[in-house]
Amino acid sequence: MTICTLKPHDISIAIDGDMYPALDGLVQNGRDCGYGEHLITTNLRSHLKWMERVLLPKRATANAVQFLDPSRREGDPCFDTYKIAGRCTSISRCQRKWKNFELTQEANFCSSTSVICCPLDDIDKDAWSTKYDLLMECPKLVHALLPENNGAPMVRIFDSETRYICMGAIISDRTILTSASCVGTAASLSVQPLENVKNTIQVQKVILHGSFNATDYSNDIAILRIPDSLKWSPRLHPMCLWSNKTHTPLIVEMLYPFNTNDTNIEFLELLTMYNSDCQRTHAHQVRGSHICVKYPYRQYTCLSSHSMLRWEDAEGIPYLIGLATDTRECKEWYYMTFSRLMAFIDWIVDNIEDEEIRRSFKVQ
Q1: What is the pTM of this model?
Q2: SS3 for 360?
Q3: Residue 310 to residue 11: CA distance in whole angstroms
Q4: Which of 6, 46, 83, 112 is surrounded by the fewest CB atoms within 10 Å?
Q5: Is residue 159 a part of any domain in this protein?
Q6: Pfam families, alphabetically (predicted)?
Q7: 188 neighbors 163 (Cβ within 8 angstroms)
Q8: Number of domains in the chain
Q9: DSSP codes, 83-144
Q10: Which range marks the domain in which residue 244 is found?
Q11: pLDDT tens digit string along 142-191?
């Protein structure tokens, strides 16, 4: 059987300077792909709406705008769409949340559209800080370093008895990002950059997300601070943070070591799914700050590894998409959940010092 595709003669589409052939139809019946023969094809233009529904993320709807108790007034306690504790605040004092609402159409309002449920850490904060802008310089920095085989922007994390417990992502020269459920109960921690596993560094400080819930693993994110700055090189560079609040790559990679004695990393391709898919079999509520993924080559997706999700762009720049939540209860889950990085960008920025960000992302 011959499988053919149909495209207009000599028509291509330019995307970011690259040329791609324009696909016009899929052959149903015919011989020799239409050379001297009649063909019956599926007209793809007639199915664009269906393909958009299947391939593109669901667009926000009016249901994303939620009103709390109308009796709640400015100053009353509340929880935002990510179940983070907040306070009913005038939108003029909650510019970050309002900016996010313009992008995602997701917000909890209190008594009116002029009073929004604002996370406590976001009250009276600028929508986009200078630190945020500098952090978003990461792709430029990594590209300038010309990393060897994508470099090694990760560390292995060990407990006080030098047992490997999980992985972390280097996001600036003294800051490592990992899961709160991994490090929250450890008495002391050390890390080994994969670039040099002989270099063991004691962790100076652990910062858990203030709303981390150890029962349902919401807000499962933590920052590790090390005492001295790492030196960037083609083998050691930061992992950039995925900050797009409306789209997530369809295919992502989960990283974890083959074992804890060397620097080998195993890459597993996972498919991002709708959170409603995860909720069907998941033990806890799947929130907007989670990302749902599935391993396509077997029925269950139960990978007991405190790992991370990444996506690599066409230039080889690695982006951190998510951090694995605790999987000890994972037995017959069809899907797996990760903490969605884009939901915590503001929290991450607030917990990195100004000087560190300026130093880390200074492009020569």
Answers
A1: 0.69
A2: helix
A3: 34
A4: 46
A5: yes
A6: Trypsin (PF00089)
A7: no
A8: 2
A9: --EEEEEEGGG-HHHHHHHHHH--EEESSSTTEEEEEGGGTT--SS-HHHHHHTTHHHHHHH
A10: 129-361
A11: 988 877 666 678 898 999 888 888 889 999 999 999 999 889 878 899 99
